[in-house]
Amino acid sequence: MRNFRSLFVALSLTAAYACVSAAQEASIPKVLQITREFIKPGKSGSAHDKTESAFVDAMTRAKWPTHYIGMTSLSGKSRALYLTSYPSFDAWQKDTEATAKNATLSAALDRAAMADGELLESIDQGVFYLREEMSMHPRPDLSQMRYMEVSVFHVRPGKEAQWAQVVKMAKAAYEKGIPDAHWGMFSELYGGDSGSYLLLSSHKALAEIDKGLLDNKQFIAAMGDDLKKFDELYAECCEASQSQLFAFSPRQSYVQDEWIKADPSFWKPRAAAPGKPSTEDKKPN
């Protein structure tokens, strides 16, 4: 199992978090809402793409201003994540109210939810708030990213100050030894255990994870004599951590037009042309 410093190094390079609303491109939004769907065995892949495309089609027809990114799991239990960001809780409320008032959109989303529900074991939601002081050069644009590492740290009750010190020391070491590192850190406000922190790290290619793992030596050198204190503080304040890997799913994402124009082959892939049935596949009369 990777220790904390190895985990942080692996997650640091080209890290970013999901700023997915066109109106929010110039700033870093504060509120991140994540919907998590657990898929029934045999119901992922194209089957889930099909039901999720109904949500995307409904939002597209309505020309809805709030966008989201869909991702599918490459590790752990089969599931999908949907990330939507807002500049504030007030903006989230206004978006929800506007959706409810749009009868056509609401009806289309309800129909899509019913069909999608047939493929799901369960669904839950979490609401996270950006911790700017614990983030390092977060990047709001994920249009060129293809993978996301999602890591959760569980901080023991009463150990928030120690956790803040751990992250502060990590940031200082990165600024010194790996200055091109980036990450966004969030604390979970609703939907999960208290003391949960989320670190999101995006990648253009999985080769970046290989490079991140090799940078552990630079991190250790930059930490210097503080390394022992760093490890002790982490052991004192963090009771558990977990990291999972996801792939961006263009068919399950509703992204802004700028993203599609920048890379239409990825964000708006053409549906596969239906093949002609062979005579061998025909049922006998």
What does this structure look like?
- With 285 residues, the chain is α+β, with helices and mostly antiparallel strands.
- It has a single domain, classed as 2-Layer Sandwich (Alpha-Beta Plaits), CATH 3.30.70.
- The chain has ten helices and eight strands.
- It has helices spanning 4-12, 46-62, 89-101, 103-117, 160-177, 207-214, 216-223, 227-237, 257-262, 264-267, and strands at 31-39, 69-73, 79-86, 120-130, 147-155, 184-190, 196-203, 238-248.
- The chain has an eight-stranded antiparallel beta barrel with strand order 1-3-2-8-5-7-6-4.
- Strand 2 and strand 3 (79-86) form a beta hairpin.
- The radius of gyration is 21 Å and the shape is globular.
- The relative contact order is 0.23.
If helices are DSSP runs of H or I spanning 4 or more residues, what is the number of helices?
10
The total count of strands amounts to: 8
- Low-confidence segments: 13-26, 272-285
Number of domains: 1
- Main sheet characteristics: 8 strands, antiparallel, barrel
Helical percent range?
25-40%
Which secondary structure elements does this structure contain, and how are they paired or packed?
Layout: H1 4-12, E1 31-39, H2 46-62, E2 69-73, E3 79-86, H3 89-101, H4 103-117, E4 120-130, E5 147-155, H5 160-177, E6 184-190, E7 196-203, H6 207-214, H7 216-223, H8 227-237, E8 238-248, H9 257-262, H10 264-267
Antiparallel strand pairs: 1-3, 1-4, 2-3, 2-8, 4-6, 5-7, 5-8, 6-7
